[in-house]
Amino acid sequence: MRSSCCGAGAGRRFQVLFLFLLWACGGGAGTQGSPASGSGAASSGSGSGAGPGGPGAAPMGQLAAARLLSMGTFGANLATINTVAAQSYGAWFAAQAAITPTHEQPLVPLWNSDREMPWWTVAITAQDQLRQRVAFALSELLVVSNANAQLIDEGQALAHYYDLLTDNALGNYRTLLDAVSHSPVMGQYLTFFRNASGNAAKGTHADENYARESMQLFTVGLWQLHADGTRTLDAAGHPVPTFSQADVAELARVFTGWASAPQDGQTGDIAWLYANDLLDPMVCYPAYHDSGAKTIIGGVPIAAGGDCQSDMEAALDALFRHPNVGPFVGRQLIQRLVTSNPTPAYVGRVAAVFADDGNGVRGNLAAVVQAILTDPEARTASDAPTAGKLREPLLRLANLWRAFTAIDATGMVQSPIERITLNDFGEASLQSPSVFNFFRPDYQRSGPLESHGLVVPEFQITNEYTIVQTANDLENLAYNFIDSDGNSCSGMDGAAVNPPSGTPFLFTAELEPLAADPAALVDTLNLMLMGGRMPALMRSTLIDDVAGIPLAPVACFGSGSDGGSGPAQRVIEAAALIINSSQYAVQR
Question: In the chain, where are the structural domains located?
Answer without folding.
Answer: 7-42+386-406+439-587
